[in-house]
Every structure is written in C-alpha cells, then in structure tokens.
C-alpha cells in the first residue's frame, strides 16, 4: 500500500522518516510513504494516482493544501472550517480531506504546557499554519491577535476566528509589533507561525528585540530546525515555558497515521525517528 506527500517543491521532509518507521513498527511492512513532487500543472494526475486501489492517501503541503479540496469526495469539519487539507485518507471508497495540523498543534501545546485555560494568544503570521493554530484556539474560546505583514490576510483570519468561536479576534500590522507600539497581555501565549528563525537562517527571531516577551506568558514556535530556535532560547532565558514545533510535527503525523491505518500510532517510534 502506498502513501504520498504531495507538494512542490519538496525539499527535505521528515515525514517519510516518521511514517516509514511507524509503519514498520506496527508490522505494516508492505506499506511505504514516499515524496511525490507535484508541480501545480500535474495536480490532476497526482489526485488520480491517489484514487488507485493501492493508495491509502497521504499528506499535502504547500502549494496544494487548498487546491486538493476540489478533488476530494468529503472533508472533515476541521478541514472544511480551516479551508485547507494536510491529510487525505480513504473511507468506504471515498477520498476524505482532513486537517491534522490544528489538532496536532493543540495536542502539542498540552503536552508541553499542561492543561490550558483560554486567554490571549498572539499568532505571528497569517498563512496556513496560522489558520490551523487559530482554529484550534478559537474553537476553545481563546482571544486572538494575528500579527502579519499583509494586514488584509490577518484581518480575514481574525474574522474567521470570530466565526470559529473566539470572543475577541483582531489583526495587528507586523510593523506595530516591530516598533513595540502594540503589546499583548502579560500572560499571552505567543505562537510563531512564520518561518523566521528556521535553518538556514537560525539567527532570525520573529519577536522584536525592543519588546520584552509577555512576562507571565509562554511561547510555542512552530519552527523545529534548529532546536531550540532562537525564539525558544530567548523565552527560556526570560524564564518562560517554551517549546519548538517538533511536538506538533509528530502529533499531526500520528493523527494522520491513524486515519490511514485505523491503528493507534506508535508515538515513541515516531519521536525516535526525528530526534
Ligand atoms: N511544526 C509543525 O508541525 C508545522 C506545521 C505547519 C507549519 N509549520 C511551520 O510554520 C511556518 C509557516 O508555515 P505556513 O504553512 O503557515 O506557511 P505560509 O502559509 O507560507 O505562511 C507563512 C506566514 O509567515 C509570514 N512570513 C514569512 N516570512 C516572514 C518574515 N520574514 N517576517 C514576517 N512574516 C513572515 C508570511 O507573511 P507574508 O504573507 O507577508 O509572506 C505568512 O503570513 C513554516 O516554518 C512551517 O515549517 C510547522
């Protein structure tokens, strides 16, 4: 049985390592997870490949997370609300789209910070990962501030978050954060959903030097290469609980694995594969 990661360009990805280790560990030795680089013009053919009986689905990444939706038979409520698919699975001959980033993000948050009651979260960025984090937090009653370079995108996300259940959701321009002319609540959770700080630019830090991190807050950085990221290091030096995005990567993968195979994911094996 085949599983694929659809995206373009597909650089280095940890997903084959995680899933092939997990498939072996549960005894699915004739299953394989492979990269499938799909230029946008080839998406139709790739989706036909996913409909073959020897294919159990796969993952979807940039730039296809939205485009694949029109080729699927059904969407989970999370994928429909977020408007993006990162996991395709088969049920009763139908191809379903799911978004395991949102649930994976929430699971990772709880693993590192314990039980969390709703408060303010500052979400840096307004792309796909911000949508997933925003959905996970908004549906649990968090107040949200989206900070982005493209203000209209952040505003649209804030509006969606209010629809998902956030009591207060707003957009703040990136420049306002950079100039420290806006500051979050003292106990805010900061979630970095931008690639700032990611290798090969590990010196990057999305939080401005001139603005202290929220003194009673916490930091979740979706970036996981390098470990720890500069933002996570800085938060720890300030005495704040902080984690990078490897936990989310494993958690969203584990949820996808169960969708495909119907089996509990071997979490420890998946962690070992990426540590
Ligand atoms: N840990 C995990 O499991 C996990 C899961 C998903 C994503 N991620 C990570 O999260 C990050 C974002 O992914 P994504 O899918 O949301 O990407 P995306 O859809 O391309 O969105 C990226 C967002 O970051 C902003 N941004 C990029 N460079 C910036 C900069 N130098 N300064 C300020 N803002 C900047 C973009 O703003 P513009 O629109 O202005 O460019 C956009 O709002 C990536 O590093 C990805 O690897 C991790």
Largest sheet: 6 strands, mixed
> Which fold name corresponds to the CATH topology of the largest domain?
Rossmann fold
Indicate the mean pLDDT.
96
Which structural category do the helix and sheet elements fall into? alpha/beta
Gyration radius (Cα, Å) is 19 Å
* Portion in helices: 25-40%
Q: How far is the N terminus from the C terminus?
A: 27 Å
Share of residues in strands: 15-25%
The strands making up the biggest β-sheet line up spatially as 2-1-3-5-6-4
Residue stretches low in confidence (pLDDT < 50, at least 5 long) are: none
| Number of helical elements | 10
The appropriate CATH architecture of the largest domain is 3-Layer(aba) Sandwich
The ligands found in this model are: NADP nicotinamide-adenine-dinucleotide phosphate
| The top level CATH class name of the largest domain | Alpha Beta
Oligomer state of the chains in this structure: single chain
The CATH fourth-level homologous superfamily of the largest domain? NAD(P)-binding Rossmann-like Domain
Tell me what the structure shows.
With 275 residues, this protein is α/β, with parallel strands linked by helices. It has two domains: 2-98 and 248-274, Leucine Dehydrogenase, chain A, domain 1 (Rossmann fold), CATH 3.40.50.10860; 102-244, 3-Layer(aba) Sandwich (Rossmann fold). Helix content is 37%, strand content 20%. It contains ten helices and twelve strands. The strands form two sheets. It has a six-stranded mixed beta sheet with strand order 2-1-3-5-6-4, with helices on both faces. The chain has a six-stranded parallel beta sheet with strand order 9-8-7-10-11-12, with helices on both faces. Helix 6 links the parallel strand 8 (143-148) and strand 9. The longest helix is centred in the last third of the chain and has 16 residues, at 246-261. The chain is globular, with a radius of gyration of 19 Å. It starts with a strand and ends with a helix. NADP nicotinamide-adenine-dinucleotide phosphate binds next to helix 5 and helix 9. NADP nicotinamide-adenine-dinucleotide phosphate (NAP) binds at residues 62, 101, 125-130, 148-150, 174, 193-196, 198, 222-224, 245, 248-249, 252.
């Amino acid at each position: 049985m085949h599983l694929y990661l659809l995206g373009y360009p597909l650089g280095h990805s940890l997903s084959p390592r995680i899933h092939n280790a997990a498939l072996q560990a549960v005894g699915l030795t004739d299953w394989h997870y492979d990269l499938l680089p799909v230029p946008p013009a080839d998406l139709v053919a790739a989706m036909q490949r996913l409909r073959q009986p020897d294919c159990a689905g796969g993952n979807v990444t940039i730039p296809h997370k939205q485009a694949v939706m029109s080729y699927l038979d059904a969407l989970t409520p999370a994928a429909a609300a977020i408007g993006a698919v990162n996991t395709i699975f088969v049920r009763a001959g139908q191809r379903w789209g799911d978004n395991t980033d949102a649930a994976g993000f929430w699971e990772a948050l709880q693993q590192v910070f314990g039980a969390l009651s709703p408060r303010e979260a500052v979400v840096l960025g307004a792309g796909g990962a911000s949508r997933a984090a925003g959905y996970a937090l908004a549906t649990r009653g968090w107040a949200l501030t989206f900070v982005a370079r493209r203000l209209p995108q952040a505003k649209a996300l804030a509006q969606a978050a209010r629809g998902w259940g956030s009591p207060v959701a707003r957009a703040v321009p990136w420049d306002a954060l950079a100039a420290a002319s806006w500051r979050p609540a003292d106990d805010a959770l900061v979630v970095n959903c931008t690639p700032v700080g990611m290798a090969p630019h590990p010196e990057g830090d999305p939080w401005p030097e001139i603005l202290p991190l929220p003194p009673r807050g916490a930091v979740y950085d979706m970036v996981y290469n390098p470990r720890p990221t500069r933002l996570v290091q800085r938060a720890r030096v300030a005495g704040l609980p902080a984690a990078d995005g490897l936990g989310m990567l494993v958690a969203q993968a584990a949820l996808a694995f169960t969708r495909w195979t119907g089996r509990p994911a071997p979490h420890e094996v998946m962690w070992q594969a990426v540590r």
